[in-house]
């Protein structure tokens, strides 16, 4: 609403119009706003008012107005995913990435006990998989619940100090046919790792990753359908996504 307040949208015919039966859609995305934490080096989001309802009516002499905003933001803002080109100069840009990288069957592993300065190793992932009662299938999307966002989002620690994959952990996932590695922290790499082994392994195996997710604690130990579709940027290196999990 134009006065800065908000309310939940409900169709005039009632909430039944939004009933989707037994399926539950869980939102895994951070909201995009000015001042939100971003990985260093990316453009901070900046919101500009394009037009207001009253401004439109005054400008065009109508009795009905439209509100619209402009945004200046990075392709890697908030909950976002990558094209392989971001970390591989010879890799595909976003417009050449098959959408199958960004949706499909998924599981979530609990690695929330791993804290900085420790790394998420292959042994830790193996134990987390056993604890989940699930299996990794070729083509799966695997989300890692680190708990880092729940503990630190909105503080400097969210940006500066977090755990992440070491090479053994990233290779362990890639060798099992995972096509998209997701995490609820700023990056799949450890905050101290200036070699960025998680992304390096993604380049080596031609797979992608999705970062800055949320609500992953609600998916631990489950198999579900994941959707994190990017915008269709021509020659894009990545895109913000509205990531969701569909749980029966």
Short description:
With 248 residues, this protein is an alpha/beta fold.
Structure characterization notes:
With 248 residues, the protein is of the alpha/beta class. It is built from six helices and eleven strands. The strands form two sheets. Strands 1-11-9-5-6-7-8-4-10 form a nine-stranded mixed β-sheet. It has a two-stranded antiparallel ribbon with strand order 2-3. Helix 2 crosses helix 5 (167-175) and helix 5 packs parallel to helix 6 (197-205). The protein is globular. The two termini are 33 Å apart.
Which structural traits does this protein have?
alpha/beta, two-stranded antiparallel ribbon, 248 residues
Summarize the topology:
Elements (H helix, E strand, L loop, with lengths): L23 E4 L18 E6 L1 H8 L7 E5 L7 E3 L20 E8 L11 H11 L8 E5 L2 H5 L3 H5 L6 H9 L4 E4 L13 H9 L2 E4 L11 E5 L10 E3 L3 E4 L1
Parallel strand pairs: 5-6, 6-7, 7-8
Antiparallel strand pairs: 1-11, 2-3, 4-8, 4-10, 5-9, 9-11
Helix pairs in contact: 2-5, 5-6
User: How many strands in all?
Assistant: 11
Mean pLDDT: 95
Structural class: alpha/beta
Order of helical and strand elements: EEHEEEHEHHHEHEEEE
